[in-house]
Amino acid sequence: MNTKLSVLFCSVLLTLISCKDSKKTAHTTENEHHWSYSGETSPEHWIEVEKNSDCNGRLQSPINIIHRSVDSVKTNHNLKIEYTPSTLISEVKNNGHSIQFDFEAGDSINYKNETYHLKQIHFHEPSEHKINGVIYPIEMHLVHVSKAGKITVLGILGEEGHESQLFEFFESFLPIKEGAFKDIHQEIDLSSLFLEDKHYYAYGGSLTTPPCTESVNWVVFKEPIILSVEEVLKLKSNMPINNYRNEQPLNGRVVKFNY
């Protein structure tokens, strides 16, 4: 009788331990479930991973811009670039999704008579936006935020060619390990991008990473900047492979081309 009770007790105890371990494993898995660019947490599954996001919305980015289908308009000074030669970068970090440079208060743009302050620059390799189906080796996003919390992102495509002094400056702070950051507090001259001389496409979209927030103003420049193959590869080696979101449907949106 004692033997039977002992066996029964052990059986119950093992069941309780097993259940506890199962709950612990499930909890751990849930906590570790985070969006990425590959596998079960890749862009195709972001809506499943990020439950309260806009990732399944109808106004998502990036898109493939077909030039013959855009609404061409003569530049009416909707966009004013107000960068100075003394923009201050506060820090650089590897957030596990991209290399990101954060800026101190200072530089801004004026878009449709509203001021947006430059907050950060990050990179995607290869490009997220396409022009006429062409994928570029890299895309740089300059994220600006207004006092009201509205977002305007400048998308600059990059193609391989000669060396870029700007990218040499960015990459002087690399390599940087995932999750790490470096204080910089140095000046950078973004006016060297000469964005005010470039033609651009404009449309209403979203952030290209979760939570995929919509109501984002997108300005994608038609003319790419040039950087060397080595500079592209150095950035690539510090970021996840293929850290881009797949093309999103237009869903009736009109893309304007400012020339």
UniProtKB/TrEMBL annotation:
Enzyme Commission no: 4.2.1.1
Record SUPFAM superfamilies: Carbonic anhydrase
Described purpose of this protein according to its UniProt entry: Reversible hydration of carbon dioxide.
Organism expressing this protein natively: Algibacter agarivorans
Superkingdom of origin: Bacteria
EC top class, as a word: lyase
Record's protein name: Carbonic anhydrase
Residue ranges of domain Alpha-carbonic anhydrase in the record: 33-259
Reactions performed catalytically: hydrogencarbonate + H(+) = CO2 + H2O
Family: Belongs to the alpha-carbonic anhydrase family.
Required cofactor names: Zn(2+)
Assigned keywords, A-Z: Lyase, Metal-binding, Zinc
